Amino acid sequence: MKLSAEQLQENWVIFINYIDTYISEPRASKLKEFYDKYAERIMFMPASHKKEYHNAFPGGYVEHVNRVIAAALEINSVWSKFGVGETYTIEELVFSAMNHDLGKMGDSENESYIPQTDQWRKDKLGEDYTFNTKLEYMSVPDRGLYLLNQNGINYTKNEFLTIKLHDGLYDDANKPYLLSWSPETKPRTSLIFIVHQADLMAARIEWEREYLPKFKSNLTSSKTNITLNNNLSTKKTPIKTKALASVKSEGLKNIMDGFFKD
Predict the structure, then answer these.
(1) Is residue 27 a part of any domain in this protein?
(2) How far apart are CA 139 and CA 174, in angstroms?
(3) Nearest to 47, CA basis, from 170, 218, 159, 205
(4) How many structural domains comprise the chain?
C-alpha cells in the first residue's frame, strides 16, 4: 500500500488532534513537543517490518495507531455498556493506545526499522524492512516506556501496565500478569484488555486489507473496507512539521527516493 503526501499529513493531523482532545496539561504539551521533535521519523515509519504482519509501508505506523485509538474508544463503549468497572479514565485509554507501540521508533539516535537491502528476503519473505543492528535490544513496550520516561512524560500505573502488556498472551513475558488464577493477582483494571483488543482488531483489519484481495477467488462474498469515522476534524490549524519538507533520516532516504513519483 502507498499513502499519498496528503494522506500522510492528514493522518498526522488526526494523530496530534487526539492529544489536543483527550490529554490534559502539562502532559499534552510535553507529548506534542516529543512528537514534533521526531515527526519526520514517526510520520514515515512502518508499523511492522514485513507484509505478512501489518502496515509494512511508509506511514503505516501512524495509520495503525490512529486505528487503535479509534477502536479502543469504540470498544470502551461496549465494555461500559456491559458494566465494566470504573478503574481507568478516557485519558489513560487514549494515552495508552497512542503510545502502545512507541518503542518501534527506536531511540533518540537510531531508527528501529530500516529498508531491507537483501532482494531475496524482500521477494521471498516479504521483508521490506529489517531491524537496525545499531540499536540495542529492548522489547517494544519496554523501549516505549523508556522513551516516555527519558523525555519527562509521566504515566500512571494503569498506563504503564497497559503499554507493557498490550500484546496480551502473544508475548510469553506477560503470562505472570495475565495467567493468574488468584483473584488477588489478577489485573485490577480492564484497560489492559481493551487496548489489547483494539490493537488485535486493528492489526487484523490491516492484514485483511493486504491479503484478502489476493484470496478473492476463494471468497464467496466481497467485503467493503470500512473507513474510520473520526469525530476529530482534520481541518484544524496545520501541525508545524518538517516531515514532508526535508527528510534527513538515513533510513528514509532510500524509501522516499521514488515514493512520490507515481
Answers:
(1) yes
(2) 12
(3) 205
(4) 1
Domain range enclosing 174: 5-256
Residue 92 within any structural domain of the chain? yes
Interatomic CA distance for residues 45 and 197, integer angstroms: 23
Q: What's the whole-model pTM score?
A: 0.81
Structural domain includes residue 45: yes
Answer whether 115's CB lies under 8 Å from 55's CB: no
Question: Is the C-alpha dihedral spanning 152, 157, 159, 160 positive or negative?
Answer: positive
- DSSP 8-state symbol, 238: P
d(CA 23, CA 17): 10
Task: Determine contact, residues 139/102, Cβ cutoff 8 Å.
Answer: no
Backbone angles phi, psi at 109, to 5 degrees: -110, -35
Residue 261 domain-assigned? Answer: no
User: What secondary structure does DSSP assign to 9-69, as a single string?
Assistant: HHHHHHHHHHHHHHPPTTHHHHHHHHHHHTHHHHHH--SSSBTTTS--STTHHHHHHHHHH
Burial category of 222 from C-beta neighbours within 10 Å (exposed 0-12, middle 13-18, buried 19 and up): exposed
Q: Per residue of the chain (262 residues), give pLDDT as tens.
A: 889 999 999 999 999 999 999 999 999 999 999 999 999 999 999 887 766 677 778 899 999 999 999 999 999 999 999 999 999 999 999 999 999 999 999 998 888 777 777 787 877 677 777 777 888 999 999 999 999 999 999 999 999 999 999 999 999 999 999 998 899 999 999 999 999 999 999 999 998 988 888 887 665 555 555 555 555 555 554 545 555 555 666 556 555 655 555 5
